[in-house]
Amino acid sequence: MKYILGVIVLLLILAGAWWLMNMSNDQTAVDETPTVLPVEPDGGIGNGAEPLEEPDAVMERGPETVIGSSVNGTDITAYHFGTGAKEILLVGNLHGGDAPNTEKLAEEFITYFKENPDAVPAGVTVTVIPSLNPDGLANNSRFNANKVDLNRNFACDWAATSMWRNQEVSGGSAAFSEPEAKAVRDYIADHQITAAIVWFAAEGKVYPSACDTTPSTDSVTLAATFATAAGYPSAAEFDAYQINGDMVNWFAQMKIPAISVLLTDRTNTEWSKNEKGIAAVLKAYAE
């Protein structure tokens, strides 16, 4: 009897072992591929709305940009200082050899900002175009190589013939017919300019800009800020003679506050005055 019970126990053990081995082999393999969850139409916001747009990246640029070239192929270069959102544009030498000190003054500001980067407040960028008329400067002429007065080639009240004092001058074949004027137009189209200051000679006075209207409050304020700090007188408008196609007035047409700063003569840069004027403007726009 004991022998029979032992045989039965042994058979049960063997049967159990066989069953366990077969169960192990029959297990279904686990799929280790990760499950891809569907993308929510709201980008995960959770309210069914469209995804939030990423903020625009700040466009990085180097310390200088070639914005165009003159009739004779000379590069027109803009120099940039600071990284703020408010861009203040400074322009010299529209009238070539007739006002060479405006180019010298702009170059002095380039050197100054390179040596004193803290002079540009946080939140502000300063762009300096020292020479918009390099051909006129090289030829000791007021006009560009096409004999056009660049400050008569912009779109505010443009005319083919305009005046300079009591002399007729060419405004070009059309507004922006000249590559130098096109360079400024295209730069303005690509950048959001907060304010512009343009140097001329010679009167020793500051004028706000306007195109077929009274100057804007912002342009008047800009003129007053610069003139008060620099020690120049300011006037409401230039009325010595009619001007067509003026660049500063075109800025006004483009809703950009702008002023003309006429140096006292055609030789001196009047650095001290202009440094104070620019510093006051930068401080005002940084606030």
SSE order and pairing:
Layout: H1 2-25, E1 64-69, E2 75-81, E3 86-91, H2 100-115, E4 124-129, H3 134-138, E5 161-164, E6 167-170, H4 179-190, E7 193-201, E8 205-208, H5 217-230, H6 247-253, E9 258-263, H7 271-286
Parallel strand pairs: 3-4, 3-7, 7-9
Antiparallel strand pairs: 1-2, 2-4, 5-6, 8-9
Helix pairs in contact: 5-7
Give a short summary of the structure:
With 287 residues, the protein is α/β, with parallel strands linked by helices.
Structure overview:
- It is a single chain.
- The protein has 287 residues and is of the alpha/beta class.
- It has one domain (64-286): Aminopeptidase (3-Layer(aba) Sandwich), CATH 3.40.630.10.
- The chain is built from 7 helices and 9 strands.
- Strands 1-2-4-3-7-9-8 form a 7-stranded mixed beta sheet, with helices on both faces.
- The radius of gyration is 36 Å and the shape is globular.
- The N and C termini lie far apart (108 Å).
Q: List unreliable stretches of 5+ residues.
A: 23-58
Strand order of the largest sheet: 1-2-4-3-7-9-8
**Mean pLDDT level:** 85
- CATH class equals Alpha Beta
CATH architecture: 3-Layer(aba) Sandwich
Helix content: 25-40%
CATH topology: Aminopeptidase
Q: Looking at the structure, what is the overall shape?
A: globular
Radius of gyration: 36 Å
Give me the secondary-structure category.
alpha/beta
Order of helices and strands: HEEEHEHEEHEEHHEH
Number of β-strand runs = 9
Overall structural domain count: 1
